[in-house]
Amino acid sequence: MLDDLVSVYRRLTNRGMARGRVSGVASNEDFAEIVRVLESHEALIESDATRGTISFRVVSTAAEYFAASMEDLLTGSSRKKKAPTSFYVADLDFLYSGELADCPAPIKSYLEYTCLVSLLEKISDHHGDVTKLIFFHKEKFEIHISYSAEHLAPIERLDEFKQKFVEDDIHAEQKKTIIKSVLLELSSEFDKKLSIGLIAEKFEEFYRRVSSSYQLYVSEFSFQKIKSEVEKSKFEFITRINKVFSDIQNQLLVVPASLILIGSQYEVSSGITLKNLIIAGGATAFALFMMLLILNQKNTLLSILNEINNELQLIKQKHSAVKLQFDEQYALLETRFLYQYVLLELVALIVVCALAAAIALFFYFSNNKEVPVELCWLIGFGLCMYVFARILFTAQLFLKNPLRSRKA
User: Fold this and answer.
1) What's this model's pTM, rounded to 2 decimal places?
2) Nearest-5° angle of CA 39, CA 97, CA 14?
3) What does the pLDDT read at residue 322?
4) Which of 7, 11, 131, 342 has the most other CB atoms within 10 Å of its CB?
């Protein structure tokens, strides 16, 4: 619709525009065609074929706008916040439809101002109001979406600001905090009457402060500092992983000693005796307590693994540019974790074998030093099933190990 109205406007002479109404004179050749076009858009107000005069209403929507001048274009608060998809400025005789090529300077500046509003809107905490943006950083402050056509001027380094501090994902949250801090400083300096027009006017100073603050932030997170923190963290994790096994070393020494003690305490009989039954029951209880202790240590080891993975994810988010430099450090932690976990599985297997031996000895001494063949098969089958189940579970754990995704 806007294209047709602009075409009609350009074909008129003695043109005038007031309150959203355009009037002019059409030539005899164009009169009928112009009336038809205006009627098709329901824009015609009146026409006089004798004098050739025509008046029509212009389009005024969020998507399209016919403006007499830049001042007219900026009369609406919504248009100061966001430019219409297409608009026409009569005194400049320019139709904007999304292409910046050959734009007059005032229109380029206007688009830069609305771009600045859009960028600050992404950082603001509340932007439902078309007249202002609200921020919360230490205290509440506002930026009024206010500027006039006479103050429109190019905003130097706006594209650079957009690419470096708004669209770039590296340190995104910290960049937002820095921008809010600088805006708060400007708000205090200008007695909290901060506007888009003022920010555009002081944009060089605004950009310099944001850039300087960011460089200061980055300098505090140099590669050497990050590397030092990772090395310290790695040492702590290795110490904790090694401690998981060392905590139960003393209890493990009891396993072979208990097996020798059990074998020497059974009495030979032709049936189950109370003494042998008590000894076998004690061996079973001992094995259960040892398995619970080992299970607890496994859970401790897995919780340490989760902490390692969380730290790795944090490094990926905060220092994505250097995250690949620390793959070797976390590969060492992964190897240490796997080694300790397999060690605990071997200890658990020894405890199960000791329990199986204690049960076999129980039946051996309770049957005049003879072990039924069926019992041997049953114990052997049970041990094989246990070993198979633990190998399967451990293999699944290793394949699902979150540290394996560290190169993602």
Assistant:
1) 0.55
2) 50
3) 57
4) 11
Return the number of other C-beta atoms located less than 10 Å from residue 49's C-beta: 12
Which CA distances in Å does 60 have to 4, 112, 140, 244, 250?
14, 22, 35, 73, 85
Q: With 0-12 CB in 10 A as exposed, 13-18 as middle and 19+ as buried, what is 2? A: buried
Strand-pairing partners, residue 144, are: 132, 195
Determine how β-strand 64-67 pairs with β-strand 86-89.
parallel
Task: Give the sign of the dihedral formed by CA 322, CA 325, CA 331, CA 333.
Answer: negative
**In terms of residues, how long is the chain?**
408
The pair of structure tokens assigned to 56 is 């029509």
What span, in angstroms and rounded, lies between the C-alpha atoms of 376 and 9? 104
Residue 151 CA, chain-centre distance (Å), reads 39
Q: Residue ranges per domain, the chain?
A: 2-57, 106-219, 223-405
- Which residue's structure tokens are 């608060």? 77
Q: Is 269 exposed, middle or buried (0-12, 13-18, 19+ CB in 10 A)?
A: middle
Helix (H, G, I), strand (E, B) or coil at 13: strand
CB 124 within 8 A of CB 106: no
pLDDT of residue 266: 76
Mean pLDDT per 10-residue section of the chain, whose length is 408 residues: 87 86 87 89 87 89 88 88 90 86 88 92 84 86 88 89 86 87 85 83 89 76 64 79 75 67 75 83 83 86 82 68 64 80 85 84 78 80 86 76 49
Contact predicate 245/343, CB 8 Å: yes
- pLDDT for 405 equals 47
Distance between terminal CA atoms of the chain? Answer: 51
**Single-letter amino acid code for the residue at 78:** S
Q: In what order do the strands lie in the sheet with 132-137?
A: 132-137, 139-144, 194-195
Q: Is 192 left (phi over 0), alpha (psi -120 to 50) or beta?
A: left
The SS3 assignment for 170 reads: coil
Token pair belonging to 359: 């049960």
Which of 73, 139, 63, 61 minimizes the C-alpha distance to 106?
Answer: 73
Planar angle of CA 49, 51, 52, nearest 5 degrees: 55
Predicted pLDDT of residue 372:
74
Three-state SS letters, 263-277: HHHCCCCCCCCHHHH
pLDDT value of position 320: 59
